[in-house]
Amino acid sequence: MRPEPAGPGSPAPAPTPARTRSRAAGSAYLAIDVGGTTVKAAALADDGRVVVETPVPTGRGAAAVATVRALARRLADAVGDHRVRSVGVAVPGLVDGTSGTVRYAANLDWRDVRLGDVLRRDLQALVRVEHDARAGALAHVADGSFGPTASFVFVPIGTGVSAGVVVAGQVVDGAAGEFGHVPAVPGGEPCTCGARGCVEAYASAHSLLRRYRASVPTSPPDLTAADVVARTGVDPVADRVWAEGVDALASGLIAVTALLDPDAVLLGGGVSRAGDELLRPLSRSLRVRMPWRPAPALRISPHLDRAPLTGAAALALRGVVNPSDAAEHLRRLSAHLARPTRPPTERVSTSP
To answer: According to its UniProt record, which protein family does this protein belong to (predicted)?
Structure first.
């Protein structure tokens, strides 16, 4: 089911708008990463506190909208008497950042969802909505991973596959970034976008798992894409599925390299946790299939699957606090997110 476009004439059901705090002790900034599988969220308070909510299942359609709204409200309550000044949201799909509208997100079953308007009414705060890969690219710009004039591509590989493109230090806006839907295998397997043979249909975590299970229907129900990667070298099916996923990813990166000539390609998302098991075969494939020029530097993002959330925080802070304070907020958030995973029911709050 697709949610009704959330607007003045058809508001989606939602939590009660955040109460007005007449004696706000300070300000807070919310960051939300809406993934195809889970929603991650964090709050940054100007007293230095970082509150990170346990990821929750996203859902689809109207249920996914309700999940985002409920999680935003929980974060607003978690920062106590701090007034929420701004919210940054990272979302997959075709995103109109100017209006805060998600035009189309296949993995969420969203069309024309005015998420910015919805959260603005709920929280009475400035809301910025951006494509998740562009938000992830912004995280690397904001944290100083590259120089001010660098050009690079950030490729998060999770439930889906996309790309955030940075040229001369600036994140490319618009509909750029749907890297997962670059054709990689002519006449290949169907993709969620309606086409066939897309990079995402082979290289995403969802596709790796789906394709493995199609060949091994007796796989345990709790099998994950990480388990498939762990079986490479001892399981011929895992070897084939992984090799075909890497090859599809290489096909897409060859096209990106030929068109953009990036200084580097950073790999993020859950699949990037494979580390050298991903970098080695991907680098080899690029060298063999692109003999006419050197491949760009391939790296695993230091943010791994956390870049869109960090980028959402950068969106919330941009132009709202001074650059040095924003950098300190992002440093605290990154340090917090890099800590070992906590029990799944625990909300974590830290102070400086």
So the answer is: Belongs to the ROK (NagC/XylR) family.
- Structure tokens belonging to residue 339: 């800590």
Query: What CATH code is assigned to 26-132+306-350?
Result: 3.30.420.40
- 26-132+306-350 and 146-301 share one fold: yes
Nearest-CA neighbor of 289 among 263, 254, 244?
Answer: 254
Domain boundaries, the chain: 26-132+306-350, 146-301
The answer to whether residues 18 and 300 touch, using CB atoms and an 8 Å cutoff, is no
One-letter amino acid at 99 equals S
Best CA proximity match to 252, nearest among 175, 164, 181: 181
Contact at 8 Å (CB) between 152 and 262? yes
Q: Quote the CA–CA distance of 178 and 84 in Å, as a whole number.
A: 32
pLDDT at 137: 93
pLDDT (0 to 100) of residue 24: 53
Structure tokens at 333: 């958030």
CA angle 227, 309, 152 (to 5 degrees): 85
Backbone angles phi, psi at 22, to 5 degrees: -70, -25
Q: What is the pLDDT of residue 346?
A: 33
Look up tokens 């990154």; give the residue. 334
Q: How far is CA 81 from the centre of its chain?
A: 29
CA dihedral over 117, 118, 121, 122, signed as positive or negative: negative
Q: Say whether pLDDT at 350 is over 60.
A: no
Tell me the β-bridge partners of 29. Answer: 44, 86
146-301, which class in CATH? Answer: alpha beta
338 vs 162: which has the higher pLDDT: 162
Joined tokens for residue 296: 């760009």
Q: How many other β-carbons are positioned within 10 Å of the β-carbon of residue 329?
A: 22
Residue type, 156: P
- Degrees, nearest 5: CA angle 66-69-73: 135
Nearest to 113 by CA among 33, 235, 42, 7: 7
CB of 24 closer than 8 Å to CB of 83: yes
